[in-house]
Design a protein that fits this description.
Blueprint: H1 10-23, H2 28-42, H3 48-58, H4 65-105, H5 112-123, H6 125-146, H7 153-173, H8 178-194, H9 208-224, H10 231-245, H11 254-264, H12 270-282, H13 290-322, H14 326-331, H15 333-352, H16 354-359, H17 364-379, H18 384-401
Membrane topology: Multi-pass membrane protein
Keywords: Cell membrane, Membrane, Transmembrane, Transmembrane helix
InterPro entries: Chr_Tranpt_l_chain (IPR014047), CHR_Transporter (IPR052518), Chromate_transpt (IPR003370)
């Protein structure tokens, strides 16, 4: 990978990345299209092959991949300063928007129409999780079938289904410990593919325990938050877990965030958490921005800014520390084997996160909206933002009709 070009003015980076931050509704697919159009097609700052390789590389890292891609593009153009500026400008518009919406939705006495819109949008969140998992599944399924490391494609497929099912069950039942399950699935696949383990079908679940044992203690600490402290320290710790453990997309950390924000710290109710996830979807930027709403609920605007800063910090660190090594990371057989196992577990976890999200719904009409949103996304194949906005509009109508 070549060194930074050091030719593009910082003012241009600030202007263009702010523009993408403002217009990037629709999540990572939209962000990638806008960054490719700017850096590859229109300005020709970065070659197509290098850009595509970097997309693959950032998807190997924990954290929001499209944010890391935006940071990397800034690094590619102007080094560390460019990376910091690009990342800040990319994140800032969505962050300001979501904090402003959080102030409205989490106000002490919000208008009934606002409460109805929030309840309506929250109704669709579980369907959005299923839609995200459905969209990721084909590429992962193709990846495990096309692998040349294991001659038994039947065994590959069975293990894929096993990993996905384990991830789904774990997300639905043991949310804060989910990261251990993802690690175990990845390590099982490493053992199968790179250590000559003769496995032709599903490995027994107990094998996951010794494979994950070296990392069990530190990651258990991260998952459980045993510090016993509250206030800003607890908020920062939750945000750090969100930023450092969100491999495979923001929905993977939803069960963990829900456990901390609703179950342990009681910063917000289940309904308010659904609102937070919905706001993270309808604003430009990654789902990880949801942590800013959690921060606002815990400690106002200062808490929102703190949570966002801590959650996005790992992405900057990963890119700045590893940008020159992305090509080697992508070509590493051990990394590829790990992702072949962890990938389907992540997809299952995203689908499984729909269970606690749906369980948080409190009114019968919300379940009707959930079914309609699922049909809109999965059968009609329409967009996430439109599903959430239509659900919010329905919720507002219900609130006005039934005060």
């Amino acid at each position: 990978m070549s060194d930074p070009a050091c030719a593009v003015p910082l003012t241009t980076i600030a202007r263009e990345w702010l523009r993408i931050g403002v217009t990037g509704f629709g999540g990572p697919p939209t962000h990638i299209v806008l960054l490719r159009r700017l850096c590859v097609s229109d300005r020709r700052w970065i070659g197509e092959a290098e850009f595509e390789d970097t997309i693959a590389a950032v998807n190997l890292l924990p954290g929001p991949a499209s944010t890391q891609l935006a940071i990397w593009c800034g690094w590619r153009l102007r080094g560390t300063v460019g990376a910091l500026l690009a990342g800040f400008c990319f994140i800032l518009p969505g962050l300001l928007m979501i904090i402003g919406l959080a102030a409205v939705f989490l106000a002490e006495h919000p208008p009934e129409i606002v409460l109805g819109a929030a309840a309506g949008a929250g109704s669709a969140v579980a369907a959005v999780a299923l839609h995200a998992a459905w969209g990721l599944a084909p590429a992962s399924w193709k990846r495990i079938q096309n692998s040349e490391d294991n001659a038994s494609h039947i065994g590959d497929k069975v293990r894929w289904l096993f990993y996905a099912a384990l991830g789904a069950v774990s997300a639905a039942t043991i949310g804060p410990w989910l990261v251990l399950v993802l690690l175990a699935c990845g390590l099982i696949e490493v053992s199968v593919r790179l250590r000559g383990l003769a496995v032709r079908s599903v490995l027994p679940l107990p094998l996951a325990q010794p494979l994950a044992q070296p990392l069990a203690h530190p990651l258990a600490f991260l998952a459980s938050d045993s510090t016993g402290t509250g206030g800003l320290l607890a908020l920062a710790f939750t945000a750090f877990k969100v930023g450092a453990l969100s491999y495979g997309g923001g929905f993977v950390i939803i069960p963990l965030m829900q456990h901390d924000a609703v179950g342990t710290r009681h910063w917000m109710s289940s309904g308010q958490f659904l609102d937070a996830v919905a706001l993270g979807q309808i604003t430009p930027g990654p789902v990880v921005q949801t942590v800013a709403v959690v921060g606002y609920a815990a400690a106002g605007v200062g808490g929102a800014l703190l949570a966002a800063a801590v959650a996005f910090a790992p992405s900057f660190v990963f890119v700045l520390a590893g940008a020159r090594r992305f090509d080697r990371l992508r070509g590493n057989r051990t990394v590829q084997a790990f992702l072949t196992g962890a990938g389907p577990a992540v997809i299952g976890a995203i689908a499984g996160s729909a269970v606690p999200l749906a369980a948080a719904l409190a009114r019968p009409w919300q379940y009707v909206l959930l079914v309609l949103a699922a049909a809109w996304l999965l059968l009609l194949r329409r967009g996430v933002v439109s599903a959430l906005l239509l659900s919010a509009a329905c919720g507002a109508v219900v609130a006005l009709s039934c005060p």
